[in-house]
Amino acid sequence: MRGPHNIIRLIRMGATLERTGGMNVVLDAFQAPASLRIVAKLLGWPFKWLGLKGDPEMPSAVRALVALGPAYIKFGQVLSTRPDVVGDELAIQLRVLQDKLPPFSIEQAKEMVRTELGRPVEEVFSTFSEPVAAASIAQVHKAHLAETGEAVAVKVLRPGIEKRFGKDIDAFYFAARMVEIFAPGARRLRPREVIEHFEGVVRGELDFRLESSAAGEFAATTKTDQGFTVPQVKWEHSSRRVMTLGWVDGIPAGDVDAIDAAGHDRHALGERVLQLFLQHALRDGYFHADMHQGNLKINAEGEIVAYDFGIMGRIDEYTRRVYAEILFGFIRKDYRRVAEVHFEAGYVPADRDIDEFAQALRAVGEPIFGMDATRISMGRLLNYLFEVTERFGMETRTELILLQRTMVVVEGVARTLNPHINIWQVSQPIVEDYIKQSIGPKALARDLFKTARVLARFGPKLPQLAEAALIAQTNSGSGEGERKRTYLGPLLWASTGGVIALTAAAAMMAFLA
């Protein structure tokens, strides 16, 4: 229920940060100005006694987020991949949120497996270990199938997580509504729609049947990608709250020392993880949208192994082309074209000045080129981009939220592996290849052929549709109208058929050429 009672939850959030000592850590990490620090203290300190205590053994910021619940933990997971935004110290602290949270008991896990699979654990698995990883939504156990002896990973949903997550989201909706009321200038960011999108994504993460399906589809679309692999889903041992996958042996992508000790090329791995994400987003329109270090491993062959498919992103072909053109324009420093693409796609209101927008984009892009990546502050860059979007009245594109968020996360992972990586240089070959395939003569031929194929399906129905339209227009019953109806029906059908034939012929000729 999204009512004023959520004020208490928001106050408790500030109070928890204050009580655990996380308030100063967060404010320092974001280099908050003095005015914001004063407001935060005034809201947090008087209600400190309302704050959750958390686990004193944990670092202060981590302690606060874990105490507040799964939605806050998800936020911390994203920040853990951005040392350039929150600083190295806080990023390292937050990394434990990825897969090292306090587990629930093995007895609870076994009971969940028994209830979900309808069979005792001992009947399904010959071994079932203590938790080997625990995250915000679920935890993982290593087991062996009783029938074959194959090693598998059994993912079990945290008991009561659905109800607790619902309460967090409820408070977020209330906060979004308050922002819209008291900060009208922020309405263009559509905060409630952002929360709706976030809720839909994580609701899907709470149903392992959907995650199993996503894992199967992702494995199919990426099966030819060199240096990348996805574990196989064991459908007969999976359900809504239990998911079984083939076991993955490997080094966590965030364990830089172990990767070096194993003799893997970290710089090559950093480039590969970034390029793989772009390939999946642009080529397939289907990508892993939670690619933080806790969800990636490096196996003995040096391949990147992905798992945890609860959050997947999907973008349509038109949006992929727009996104690619924007990236390509930045890579070529063609800021005028980047501005044009924004206007053509409707991302910027048509009444704004395109030349001014191009100039603003140049101010964003130019500092990136020719610099060591370690000297670029992504925090300052994102802050400047926000100012540009506010100035030109751009609205939040909810369909691109996951894409933008994942791009930030993946860049953070790549920088962990290779601190000197330049996102634009690494992206260039992937984006250029996509541009060649999707924007040009062959792409036009494919589009025409697809259009002709769709129109051809309606061929048998077009005469009836034309007749019905003409009857509706000539209901007056005039003789002239009746004659028009009689003769125009076949003519419309003939002309439509001719258009279909010509379109198909043109498409085939262009394709063959």
From TrEMBL:
InterPro entries (UniProt xref): ABC1_dom, Kinase-like_dom_sf, UbiB, UbiB_bact, UbiB_kinase
Residues annotated as transmembrane: 491-512
Protein known as: Putative ubiquinone biosynthesis protein UbiB
Keywords, in A-Z order: ATP-binding, Cell inner membrane, Cell membrane, Kinase, Membrane, Nucleotide-binding, Transferase, Transmembrane, Transmembrane helix, Ubiquinone, Ubiquinone biosynthesis
The ABC1 atypical kinase-like domain, residue ranges: 97-342
Pathway in which this enzyme or protein is active: Cofactor biosynthesis; ubiquinone biosynthesis [regulation]
Any single biological process term in GO: ubiquinone biosynthetic process
Family that this chain belongs to: Belongs to the protein kinase superfamily. ADCK protein kinase family.
PANTHER family: CHAPERONE-ACTIVITY OF BC1 COMPLEX CABC1 -RELATED, PROTEIN ACTIVITY OF BC1 COMPLEX KINASE 7, CHLOROPLASTIC
GO molecular function: ATP binding; kinase activity
A UniProt-annotated Pfam family: ABC1
